Amino acid sequence: MYTDNNDTICAPATVPGTGAISVIRVSGEKALEIADKVVTCKTPGTVSSAKGYTIKFGTVSAADGSPIDEVLVGIFRAPHSYTGENSVEISCHASKYIVQQIMLLLMNAGARAAEPGEFTRRAFLNGKMDLAQAEAVADLIAAQSEGAHRIAYSQMKGGFSSELKEMRSQLLDIVALMELELDFSEEDVEFADRSQLNALLDKVTGHISSLIDSFRLGNAIKNGVPVAIAGATNTGKSTLLNALLGEDRAIVSNIHGTTRDTIEGTMNIDGVLFRFIDTAGIRETDEAIEKIGIERTFRKISEADIILGMADASRTPEQLEEELNDLLPKIDYGRQKLVLLLNKCDVVTEENIRNKIVLIKNLFVLYVDNKANSDITEKTTVHFPISDASLRENSGIYTITCGKARADIIPVSAKSQFGIPALKSRIASLQKDRPADADTTLITNLRHVEALSKANEALARVKSGLAAGIPTDLAAQDIREAIYHIGSITGTISEDEVLGVIFGRFCIGK
Fold first, then answer.
1. Which of 70, 83, 147, 413, by CA, is between 20 and 30 Å from 419?
2. Three-state SS sequence of 376-408
C-alpha cells in the first residue's frame, strides 16, 4: 500500500448510483493538470489557471469525442485542501457508468486509483491533522447516533489531541531537566525537583486513568450501548426484542428453549444508539447446545450496561421467585442498570401485578443486601440494610431503591406493545445519567486505550523507582517510554505498518 506519496491519486468520494450526484476526488501535484486533460471548461480559462476555492463548469468527453457528462469542478490549491496538496473534486451525475468512465479517463491522464484511506493518510503526512484526528474522521463517517457523532467530531477537531499534547509537553520538560542532571552528574546537582515531579506524575497518571476508564462508555456510545434481555424461558424475551426493533428479528414460540444463541439488533433512541441482545432462556437443562446458549447468556449479562430482566406475570409467585433467583445474583448492582419487566400483564389482574411487584421488590432488596443467599455471586458489590429500601411509582414505572442501588419495574405486554413506549423512555433516561456531555473526553479506540495503559505502567515504574531512590537515568528512560506511548496516539511517533492498519479501515474515497 501507498507505494508513492508523490503520485496523483483519484477515487469516488461518494457511492455511485445512490443519489443525484457523485463526487470524484483527485489529489496530488498534477491534479489540476490532469483535470485539464479530462474536463473541457465551458467558461473562460482552464482548471489549472483557476483560483483556489472556485468552481468551473465543463464537460467530460470520451476519447472519440462523444460526451459523457456535464460536471462541476471544485479547485483547491495546496496547502489549502483536505490533503494539503493540489486537489479537485469533480461533481457528476450519480451513474455508475459515468463515474467509471471519468475514473478511467483520469487514470489514462496520469492519475492512479487511491488506496483505502489514502486521502486522509496524506492529510496526516502533510500536517493537516494528527493521527488521532485522522482516526476520528473514520468514526465520524461511521457515526450512527448523536452521541457517537459528538465524540467523533470533538476528536476530529483536536480536543483529545490537545489533552495528550499537554501531558506529553509536561513530561518532556521534566525529562529534559533529568537529562541535564546527567550532564552535571559530577557536580551532584538536582534540576528536577522530586516533589514537583511526584505531583506531576500523580496529575498525569490520574488524567490517563480517567481517560482509560472512559473507554467503556465511549465504546458503548460508538458501537451501541449493550442492553441484555435476560430471564427464564418463555417469558417473552424474543417478543420484546421484536417489539423494540419493530421487526421480526427473533423467532417467537411457546416451546421452551427456542432461542439457543444471542440475537442482536440496534436502535437509536433520543440520539443514542442501543444494542439490544436477546439471550437464551435461563433454566436447568441437559441439552448440550442449550447449555452453551445459557453460558453465553451469562457472559452477555456480565458485559451489558443495562439489563432488561424478563419475568412472566402469569406465573405463580413460587415460579417467579425461582426464576429471579437465577437472574438477580448475576447483576453487578454497583455498575449495571437493572430494569425488571413484568411481562404478559394483559392477562392478569391489577391486584396480581401489584403483588408480583412487591415480591420482586423484596427479592431485589435481599440480593442487594447480600443476606438472603450465602452463595450469592461475588459480582454483587453493593451492600445496604433492608431498612433503607423503598418502592415508589411514577407514570407506571416502579422504582426500588436500596441505598445507592436501584432497579425499575415496568409492567408490559410485549405482544400488545403495552408499556413499550415507557420502557424506551426509561432506557434513554438511564443512558443520559452517564457523564457524556460535550465537555467530557471519551475514548472510543482500543489502540488509544492500549497506548495509554502502557504509558501509565511506565509512569508507575517512575514513581515507585523514585521512592526507592533509583538512578536518574533509569527514571528518565521510563518517562521517555511513557512519552513514546502517548505520542504514538497522535502520530508524533509512528511506524508505516501502524499507519497501514489504521488507514486501511477507511473507504477508498476518504
1. 147
2. CCCCCCCCCCHHHEEEEEECCEEEEEECCEEEE
Locate cell 442449550: which residue? 290
Domain membership of residue 16 (yes or no) is: yes
Task: State whether 416 and 290 are in the same domain.
Answer: yes
How far is Cα 64 from Cα 35, in angstroms, rounded to an integer? 18
- ∠ CA 88-94-96, nearest 5°, is 100
Q: Report pLDDT digits (tens) over 101-130.
A: 999 999 999 999 999 889 999 999 999 998
- Which residue(s) pair with 10 in the sheet? 26, 113
pLDDT digits (tens, 9 = 90+) for 168-185: 888 887 777 776 666 555
Task: Specify the DSSP class assigned to residue 470.
Answer: -
Evaluate whether 410 touches 339 at the Cβ level (below 8 Å): yes
Q: At what angle do helices 496-503 and 118-125 cross, to 10 degrees?
A: 140
Q: Are residues 25 and 141 in the same domain?
A: no
Same domain, 13 and 104: yes
**Distance between CA 39 and CA 66 in Å, rounded?**
13
Give the CATH number of the domain where residue 320 resides.
3.40.50.300
